Amino acid sequence: MDWSIVSKILLPEFIVVFSIILTILLSLFEKTKKYVSAVATVALAIASFVASQTGIGGDVTKILNSAFISDTLCIYLRVLIYGVAALIAMASKKYLDNYESPAEYYPIFLSATLGAGFLAGVNDFLTLFIGLETLGLSAILLASYARKEKKSNESALKYLLTAASATSLLLLAMSFIYGVTASTNFALVASRVAQLQSIGVLSDKLEILIAALLVAAIGFKLAAAPFHNWSPDVYYGAPTTTTLFLSVVSKIAGFAVAIRVFGTVFHNEFLLPLLAAIAVISIVVGNFVGIIQVISRGSIKKLLAYSSIAQSGYLLVALTSLRLESVSSLLLYITIYALMNTAAFACVIHFERETGSDNIFDMAGLLQKKPMMAIVFVIALFNLAGLPFIPAGFIAKFFLFATAFSSGITYAPYLVIIALIGSVVALFYYLYVAKLVIVDAPSHKLQSIPDEGPAFDFTKLTAVLSTALLVIFSVWGMDFLQGMTEMAIYRIGV
Amino acid sequence: MEIGLTHYLTLSALLFSIGLFGLLISRNAFRILMSIEIMLNAVNINFVAFAHYVDPLAIKGQVFSLFIMAIAAAEVAIGLALLLLIYRNRVNIDIASFDSIKW
Amino acid sequence: MTNVENAWLIALYPLLSAVLIMFFTHKSRKISMGISIAAVAIGFIHSLLLFFNFHGHEAYEANFNWIKAGDFHLEIGLLVDQLGIGMLLTVTLVSLLVQIYTHGYMDEDKGYTRFYSYLSLFTFSMLGLVISTNLFQMYFFWELVGVCSFLLIGFWWHKPSAAHACKKAFVTNRVGDAGFLIGLIMLYAFTKDFWSVDIATMSFTKIQEAINFAIANNGLEVVGLVSVTTIGILIFMGAMAKSAQFPLHIWLPDAMEGPTPISALIHAATMVAAGVYLMVRVFPICEITGSGALSFIAWIGGITAIFAATIALTQNDIKKALAYSTCSQLGYMIMSVGLGAPYIAMFHLITHAMFKAMLFLGSGSVILGCHHEQDMREMGGLRKYMPITAITFLIGTLSISGMPFFSGFWSKDMIIAKAYEVSPALFWIGTITALLTAFYMFRIYFKTFEGEYRGHAHPHEQPLAVTAPLMVLAIPSVILGLWGSPLMDYPLLKYFNHHFHAHGTGLSFFIHELTQPMGYLPFLAFVFGNLGAYLIYVKGITMQDKAVNVYVKEKFVPLYEGSVNKWYIDEAYEFVISLCMSFFRITWKFFERVVIEGIVINGLAWRGSEFVGEVLKLTQSGKVQSYILIMFLGLIVSVLIFMV
What we know:
The complex is a heterotrimer of chains A (494), B (103) and C (644). Chain A is mainly α. Helices cover 75% and strands 1% of the residues of chain A. Chain A has helices at 3-9, 11-28, 36-52, 72-96, 105-119, 125-143, 150-181, 186-199, 204-222, 230-237, 240-265, 271-295, 300-319, 324-355, 366-369, 371-385, 392-405, 412-438, 444-447, 458-487; strands spanning 61-63, 68-70. A two-stranded antiparallel sheet of chain A has the order 1-2. Chain B has one domain: Helix Hairpins (Orthogonal Bundle), CATH 1.10.287. Chain B is built from three helices and no strands. Chain B is elongated. Chain B is mainly alpha-helical and 103 residues long. The N and C termini of chain B lie far apart (54 Å). Helices cover 72% and strands 4% of the residues of chain C. In chain C, the strands form two sheets. Chain C has a two-stranded antiparallel ribbon. A two-stranded antiparallel ribbon of chain C has the order 3-4. Chain C starts with 7 loop residues before the first helix and ends with a helix. The relative contact order of chain C is 0.07. The model of chain C is unreliable at 598-622 (pLDDT under 50). Chains in contact: A-B, A-C, B-C. Chains A and C meet through helix 7, helix 9, helix 12, helix 14 and helix 17 of A and strand 1, helix 5, helix 6, helix 27 and helix 28 of C.
């Protein structure tokens, strides 16, 4: 093994590991505690930048006995994951000060991010499992972080139990794949499965079972219905910074796994209808239950949870036709989704910290009290809804649906039409919240707090930065997409 | 009767089902954690059996099952810590009482 | 500077002014107003220069890549042709006059500069829409004008009715836009392989070419007539919402909650006409479907025309009555497109923009004069107090009602004459609508300006900033139509379409036409509608000792109530929506209570208590386990689907 190549490719991970150790050390001493969040943010930003430099002209490099692969997909997703995680770390600082020992949050946060980043390049079922657990177990700890709050405890326990069930399903699927192919390496598995399929010795029943197990286990990670039930509860109960992490970083990692596993490793005719089915169910559940959330005057965090279930559904629409364009449209969409959600949640974090409430109706009249937050929030909502107002979200959605529509798969047009109808339904709740924020008079909760001052605040900075990136993507998103598509020629090495 | 791969797989399937059953019906949160362990062990049996029968040279499956055990231990550690925390807050680890967060 | 390549500057000026006002000059009312008016004035002059200098028969087009990925690529660009120049002139002229008028109208409003920035932003979006080269770009600006309209309807957002109206406008437009977008994606997906090599069908200049290609290469059969018709109708859905066609017209009357300059600019002259402009641009797509999409369009237009006219008969709010009149006139234009005469629709669009903008601005002047009173029952006799407003309003009324030799006469009668050739039923609908139009327009005029003043304010004439735009608009309202008339050999129509051919030309042809049913029936409709309104609202003739309108009101209660209540369309929508909402709510409750709690937990437990004692424990199980259960059920179902 050539360690110089390994250390070059895994340099971002080494940086994150180093920052984990550093943050643990810093959090030990009263004097240095306050630097922990800055260290985490800077380390992640550096990791993101370094990750962008690890590629060598689009070459595919396999390291660690082919357990980790560095291709354009891996590089891009690592840049994205570490970059967004840096934004989230920045947004968390002030919110966490409400809890005891905020500094201890960051080592766990960093290790969860490490797991997610590692998942971008896994090329072996063993590393896949380890990456998922690093991410998942750390995320459980993050969810339980508000130790004294019963809802945080409860959400963490729910997450732990459902995640453990999903893990057992994934392991079962892996054990069968191992039994069939005698290997856990993606490339070997793919070639042997294809070989067995071509000579027809692989029984249909086993293929169905493996496909269903994989879809269930990965669907859990993506919070796609009917494997989604954990997400509204956990999103609601967990500290909002964790919710943001789960809805963005964890989901990107889930799609990284989905693209690799479904796109290259295990592929049969049963898989695509299953993905299509969970896409449809996710869109329906996410959007319709989201409406109920508004009607029943619920929590904005739960509303965004349902919204993100529906967004998973849209992304799965692209996943049903794994072609060149659909992968690049998926990457564009998930990038913009990450920014939109970061902006929206940063506003929620800010709002929750100021008022102590996460109720949708307490956000009424935010425009009058906190104009900047309100505008950013509404822009994020409009983008999530796919309205062409700062059109990043619209462009991403259009491109996603257009490529899916013309993918040539027989049922793709129906999927797109369902997705469009779903997004019209979703408009109701996005616009309803936008209307509350802009038009209505300030709620009691908001009236009791002072007006927005010029005070600098990292949460606000995150929100504004994400929105600015959205604007940049609106203008240069197309060049980006073109680049992605050209890069995707070398994509997903096997 | 020769004990073959099928027997191991059947044992594993039965264990998995028992674990699932326990997972779904247990009321005490500790029992649920134990049930999850049973499910993971069922998968371990699968891996080890496959390693023996289809991959006797590289025995990747056995290595895999070691990893599963290690991570399962971490999972249980987190679960137990969490239960301790919950017990401190509520003096109760009855899973049925954890439904304050609904839709 | 006046080169055709620089036509995009016309759209850029208002954008610059919007940005300047929003970020820099919003403190100073004078500078903001100056910038805004100057921007659109330069745009108008630029458009005029284009009009005089651009004579080529070929459209000028410049495209830049916007999206390129694999075989998928979209362009953004600039398209200038005679059609576009006509629209540019109309939009910049009306926008200019409305902005001048705004200075007088919004003088006392706190949001004065904000209003100017929105106006500029809207003007930019609308001009961008006009110079779009392809459907995708147009869709983009289409949404942008929608957003501006949303902002401006809700300009006085502290009024609950305005907040409600802007929400309604937005939601209704989204319904249409969803159709438009699906149509666009279908057009792209269905036609890219069969019709042409690139995205030709998305580009306006290449639509005809692509269709010829399709016909020559059997592409139409491959794609399927039904699909093409569906595409045409889906795209038309966008126009239905934007141009307030039945049954998506409900937002337009409510949109009158916005300030009156907005009603004149956006909801009478320009934005609502964007639907017609879109249909003219994509006309070839609808045309190849033969009677399919076209007759659908024609009938929607016809139904809207007569339907809105019947509602306008009984409205007492002056702006609402004019709003329904706009709906009705847009119905004429859409009908004209459906009848296969898109250029006549453009002709009517332009004349209508002039006189309808003037009527709305006149109504705004009246509303100001009566101290923000909009109810016509509180007006009357205003001619004495506001002579300029009254005269210009009368000119507008005559023009829209079809007074011979006025602008509206030529354009409207040309549509009715076209209907006479194509479809007798639509001809009669058009003629009856003309009768109703003459009646309700004169009703508005007589109730507002004639008789005795019934209100309690002290009406007075408005300052020059308000009346000058009225006087300027009065000129084209009278004479513009001549350029499209047989008397001058249809120069305007020939300008739009070089292949335009008429059955005849000159005075003798005109007189000959008048002796035909299609000539004299609309004229009679004008005379009788006018006369009826005069007799009822000025002379006050009686029937069984009651004024005729009172008599009708009492005798035909259902009809009258129906008209006053807009034929209960809003109520029907509300009913359906509330039905759907309660359906969702009930389904969800059912799902939550019965399926999850009842069947999954309690139901299984109930059976378990009978069969397997141990399963009884499920009763006590908490929610987490039901989640896991659902997960496994999902897994089992997905396995079973393929196994069985």
